[in-house]
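User: Can you recover a sequence for this backbone? Please restate the input before giving your answer.

Assistant: Of course. Working from this structure:
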């Protein structure tokens, strides 16, 4: 039986009820790297687990308690290998007298499992990154679509805004050319000029917007009288307000601010223009 015992590749150890190793095969010696004389008589937990006492969840004690074969896998710090152990009780007259430990080196298998787990984790992380990238692309695409809608709406509105004052100006000029009364001709030309100035303002706003987008916009900051700018804007839009019977009420006190004069005037003009445009007839600003 000794030859058969030693021919088994797995490490085999016979352990008595006091944790003492009583017999081992050649596979056990080769696995743990100690000569047989330094193993026989030693406690199993000293050789296998490199411990001074049985550790929690001891397979030997579990097999004694359940009276059946028990299995576990663990890393042995003594030989720095992953091991698979099956502990089976040996009975004599119905009593357990010994256990047989069959120990197999599963280090390569464990390394493959760990590598596979890392690859799986890396794969799932890659899928997560792809999902996040896809979501970002989707959000960006939706923003681009929305921007295109806004751009189309702006272009439609701008086309209308550019065409309207030009149409009015051309109509006034045509009428003025046929008008015999000098005073009426002058009024027609003044209206044409105002329409063209309105168109010029729209074009200047578009140019300013383009400069901002390109990062080419340069502000000229200086100290100005804000109340004077407001009064200037009210004068320019007074006729438009009068046409809708809208009254502009302003109670201004002198105040000096440090701003870009052209831009602050544009901003105030736009605010007043919208206030007139969306106000009711006979309203107040």
């Amino acid at each position: 039986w000794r030859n058969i015992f030693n021919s088994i590749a797995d490490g085999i150890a016979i352990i008595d009820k006091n944790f003492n190793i009583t017999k081992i095969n050649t596979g056990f010696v080769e696995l743990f790297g100690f000569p047989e004389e330094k193993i026989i008589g030693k406690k199993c937990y000293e050789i296998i687990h490199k411990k001074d006492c049985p550790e929690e969840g001891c397979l030997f004690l579990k097999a004694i308690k359940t009276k059946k074969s028990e299995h576990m896998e663990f890393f042995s710090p003594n030989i720095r290998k992953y091991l698979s152990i099956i502990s089976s009780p040996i009975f004599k007259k119905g009593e357990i007298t010994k256990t047989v430990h069959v120990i197999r080196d599963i280090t390569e298998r464990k390394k493959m499992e760990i590598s596979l787990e890392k690859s799986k984790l890396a794969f799932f992380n890659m899928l997560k990154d792809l999902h996040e990238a896809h979501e970002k692309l989707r959000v960006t695409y939706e923003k681009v679509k929305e921007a295109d809608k806004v751009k189309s709406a702006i272009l439609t509105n701008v086309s209308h805004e550019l065409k309207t004052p030009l149409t009015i100006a051309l109509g006034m000029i045509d009428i003025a050319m046929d008008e015999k009364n000098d005073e009426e001709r002058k009024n027609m030309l003044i209206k044409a000029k105002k329409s063209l100035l309105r168109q010029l303002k729209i074009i200047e706003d578009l140019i300013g917007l383009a400069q901002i987008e390109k990062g080419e916009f340069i502000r000229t900051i200086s100290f100005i009288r804000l109340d004077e700018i407001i009064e200037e804007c009210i004068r320019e839009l007074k006729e438009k307000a009068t046409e809708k019977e809208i009254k502009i009420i302003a109670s201004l006190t002198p105040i000096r601010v440090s701003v870009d004069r052209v831009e602050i005037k544009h901003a105030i003009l736009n605010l007043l223009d919208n206030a007139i445009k969306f106000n009711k007839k006979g309203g107040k600003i």
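That completes the design. The longest strand covers residues 81-92.
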